[in-house]
Amino acid sequence: MKKILITLLLCLPTLIVSAANENPKYLRGAVPERDGIVTFTQTFSVPGKTQAEIFPVMKAYVQQLVANARQDLRTRLISDQDNTLVANIEEIMTFKKKFLNWDHCFFRYLISAQCTPDNKVTLIITKISYQYQFDNEGNGGENFKAEEWISDAAAINKAGTKLYPRSGKFRRKTIDRVEEIFDGARAAFEAPAAPAAPQSKATVIE
User: Fold this and answer.
1) How many distinct structural domains can be found in the chain?
2) So what's the pLDDT on residue 200?
């Protein structure tokens, strides 16, 4: 019995370190860059739908993102030409909300959605930035670009096992929000269940 206890005590530091390690979902490679710019991309196909049918669905989805965002001069649909949508979005990103303690920032990004003749949609989220610790009117505070704040080089320790406490919360929330936006775009093509017609589901390509 004593030997078992000693073994458990010896293993305890290892178990604690393992438990403290970051979820791999947020570690190296989770924030992709293109030419030095943080850029999230996903392409999915919508079987059984033509380009003419896909574009209105994506337009409605992007318009909903705009409508649900923080309404200021930055949030707007920029273009909806040539089966491509482009919008600037500013959202409120909440890290923690308790009584008299609301830790949040303004999360800004550019989203584009291109619908191609081969029944595919390519979503791109880039030009990401944050405004943090501003006053009650939304002025002042700190401004960060994604490249200098949530990139692998800026947010992960040298061992590659943990995120830095301050920038790490921005990285986690950004990854989760981008995933949510991409999932929502695919879900927009999922028809409600009906016995007379099969559902049309989006399929992720990359």
Assistant:
1) 1
2) 45
The CATH code of the domain that includes 161 is: 3.30.530.80
Cα 125 to the center of its chain, rounded Å: 8
Instruction: Produce one character per residue of 135-169: b if its CB has 16 or more CB atoms within 10 Å, e if not.
Output: eeeeeeeeebbbbebbbbebbbeeeeebbeeebbb
Residue 99 inside a domain? The answer is: yes
Q: Is residue 65 part of a domain?
A: yes
Cα(206)–Cα(187) distance, integer angstroms: 16
Q: Can you say whether residue 140 is alpha, beta or left, with left for phi > 0 and alpha for psi between -120 and 50 degrees? A: left
* Residue 1 located in a structural domain: no
pLDDT digits (tens, 9 = 90+) for 98-126: 888 899 999 999 999 999 999 999 999 99
Would you say residue 82 lies in a domain?
A: yes
State the pTM of this model: 0.83
Residue 119: count of CB within 10 angstroms of its CB: 18
